[in-house]
Structure formats: C-alpha cells, structure tokens
Amino acid sequence: MVEHHASQLDSIFHALGDATRREMLARLAKGEHTVSQLAEPFDMSLAAASKHIKALEAAGLVKRDVQGRVHVCRLNAGPLANAHQWLAYYEIFWRNRLDALEELLKAEDAKKLKPKSKSGVKK
Asked: How many domains does the chain have?
C-alpha cells in the first residue's frame, strides 16, 4: 500500500512538473475539452498533446472518454488531495521555522530598543 501511494505521488508530481500539463489541468478545471482543444493554445500536434494527456491520466488527474473519433478529457482532481497532504507536512515545517525566526527577530529588536542609562550603559 505504501509503495502504491509513493508511486502515485511520483506520477502526480511528474505530471505537475510540466508547465504544459499544468495549463491543461487549469483548462480542464473549467470544463471538458477535446484533445484538439487542449492542444490548440500550445501549437502542438495531437500526438504531442496525447502524450501530455497520457501523463496526466497515469497520475489519475484526467479521465478520457472516447466518443467515436473524438477524445473528450475531464479533470479528476481527487489525486491532488494526496499531493496536497504530502505538501502540508512541509507547510507546517516552514510555518514553524518562520515563527521561530519571527520570535528571534522580535527579541533582537527588543534588545535594540532598550533605553540606555545616563552613563551610556544599557540597562
């Protein structure tokens, strides 16, 4: 089960690692598109678009239905939850690190703002 989960995450991040595929996902988030419609803004062949779509399908992010000779694609955002969950761990890590940095900077500022005594020595 753990290996399957890791394999799925690998596929998801591989799919998201390409700007063309991310744009295709953004377009699919607005509704179904044919392969031709997905390829159009990128000035690419249908074969090239199909390769990108296959990567998205392998990650489980896209479902493709064949209606005669037309391939219609739709977004399946469910697997993104797994990627989000994995990233959330690091979000917590960085939030904690940034909170610690904020406390350190506040302490430094407080030291700088302490009033000096008349003899010029900090209290």
From this structure: 1
Segment among 7-11, 34-38, 70-74, 108-112 with least mean pLDDT: 108-112
pLDDT tens by residue, 62-88: 999 999 999 999 999 999 998 998 888
Lowest mean pLDDT among 25-34, 52-61, 67-76, 89-98: 89-98
Instruction: List the structure tokens of 115.
Output: 């009033």
Cα(83)–Cα(97) distance, rounded to whole angstroms?
A: 22
Domain holding 50, by residue range, is 2-75
Q: Which residues of 13-47 are buried (b: 16+ CB within 10 A; e: fewer)?
A: eebbeeebbeebbebbeeeebbbebbbeeeeeeee
Buried b (16+ CB within 10 A) or exposed e, 87-123: eeeeeeeeeeeeeeeeeeeeeeeeeeeeeeeeeeeee
CATH code (residue 17): 1.10.10.10
**Mean of all residue pLDDT scores within the chain:** 87
